[in-house]
Design brief:
Layout: H1 9-23, H2 26-39, H3 43-68, H4 72-113, H5 122-137, H6 143-168, H7 182-193, H8 195-212, H9 218-248, H10 261-305, H11 312-327, H12 331-356, H13 365-386, H14 393-399, H15 411-432
């Protein structure tokens, strides 16, 4: 029997909790504190910038998938054609598997296991981590329930413990003066979490989940994905804002602590040995849930892209093995290699998300196609900057444009190009008629 309307509240809570914990990975634990410490008294503006990309972006991505009733694969192939659409979709999936999986697994070892059990070798941590990830992701029908009913509640409880202590008894105060680029810094730090891109991928994963739960119509999928997206975004927004504040206040006591180390120092400074244990639990659960979700999503998406020729379980096994093997590289190297690819894709992903919110997407898809290409061009400039080519033409040109100082110089020219293309297409259509 097909269900109508929203799923029961209890089920929505479980799914929303699962999606929050799937998004809330190591990036959400290490980047906001660094952001807050560097922003000082401008921490709240920095937190707003972080939320624009990390929280609002997540909600809009889910909403885009709901409005189109398609995953990123379906949207991208509609824009770029069957061949290039699948290549475009495969890139962020491969980034999550090749970069994010090893990043979160090695972070679990370096930031959660070693501070408590210094004698444990990396390979043992990775073996246990990915065996658990595989267990959670191996059966598609039960992935969300395993994450949402068991892991997410424990994660949220420990986050609340650390947050309460940090708010009521901070170690220091935000340093003055703040930074004039707080909003831009917040947005750029949020890029690192990859949550908006992940949400566009997870959107297809959730559409499959809703189908498993007998939610079939476009309208009902829209309602449920909107509810899940809003709930997930709110949880991510609250936690990131709190962690930015903890970085600005308690993090000021550790001015020289590096990324990752700062988060550990704050936890131990606030709660001592209990803080180290609490942080270890938070980090392990956040990384484990993210890992299982990524592995399951990759299985879903590649199975869809190949029309079932690649089996879900086979992809899950392959992704697990890749994550284990590359996890031996180490956290700092992985972060360095991840960021350039993220800044390359993010502008075009934002174009796809915002455009897909329009129900009559087919009427504007040719203009959106051009917009995606233009956005990738601008993203290439930021990518080159991360490789040391900071004076490249694209970056120099982008920074001179409106919103360039906020890292959004690509937005207005991309929008203008899309509008011009759409107007030309409509005028041509009228002449033909």
């Amino acid at each position: 029997m097909i269900k109508k309307g929203l799923l029961p509240v209890s089920v929505l809570i479980v799914i929303s909790g699962a999606m929050f914990s799937s998004h809330f990975g190591v990036g959400d634990l290490i980047f906001p504190p660094i952001l807050g410490r560097d922003a000082g008294t401008s921490w709240f503006i920095a937190a707003i910038g972080y939320m624009i990309i990390n929280s609002v972006g997540v909600w809009l991505a889910y909403l885009a998938c709901a409005h189109q009733n398609q995953s990123l694969t379906g949207i991208a192939t509609k824009l770029l054609g069957k061949y290039f659409g699948k290549i475009y979709t495969a890139i962020p999936i491969l980034i999550t598997v090749f970069f994010i999986l090893p990043r979160i697994s090695s972070a679990t070892h370096e930031m959660a296991v070693l501070p408590l059990l210094s004698g444990v070798p990396l390979w043992i941590t990775l073996a246990v981590f990915f065996l658990l990830s595989f267990y959670i992701a191996s059966t598609r029908a039960t992935v969300i329930d395993k994450i949402g009913k068991v892991l997410a509640p424990v994660l949220i409880i420990f986050v609340l413990i650390l947050a309460f202590r940090g708010i009521t008894s901070p170690l220091s105060v935000p340093q003055s003066p703040g930074t004039p680029t707080a909003l831009k810094d917040g947005m750029l730090n949020a890029y690192n979490t990859m949550n908006a891109i992940a949400a566009l991928l997870f959107g297809g994963w959730l559409l499959h989940e809703l189908k498993i739960r007998n939610i079939e119509t476009r309208e009902d999928k829209d309602k449920n994905l909107n509810a899940i997206g809003i709930s997930t975004a709110i949880l991510l927004g609250i936690t990131s804002t709190v962690l930015v504040y903890l970085g600005a206040s308690s993090g000021a006591s550790f001015p020289d602590a590096s990324i990752g180390v700062l988060s550990t120092n704050i936890a131990s400074g606030l709660l001592g040995q209990i803080g180290l244990f609490s942080f270890a639990v938070i980090l392990t659960l956040s990384c484990l849930t993210t890992s299982a979700a990524i592995i399951s999503m990759a299985g879903d998406m590649f199975s869809e892209m190949t029309n079932g020729k690649l089996n879900y379980r086979v992809i899950v096994i392959i992704a697990t093995v890749i994550g284990f093997a590359l996890g031996l590289v180490g956290l700092s190297r992985i972060v360095k290699y991840t960021v350039p690819w993220l800044v390359l894709l993010y502008p075009s992903i934002i174009v796809i998300i915002l455009s897909s919110l329009y129900y009559n997407f087919d009427k504007i898809k040719r203009a959106v196609t051009v917009g995606v290409v233009v956005a990738i061009f601008f993203g290439l400039g930021d990518m080159l900057s991360f490789y040391g080519l900071t004076s490249n033409f694209i970056t120099t040109f982008t920074s001179s444009l409106p919103l360039g100082s906020q890292g959004l110089g690509w937005f207005l020219p991309t929008l203008v190009v899309m509008i011009v293309v759409q107007v030309v297409i409509q005028l041509s259509a009228k002449k033909e008629n």
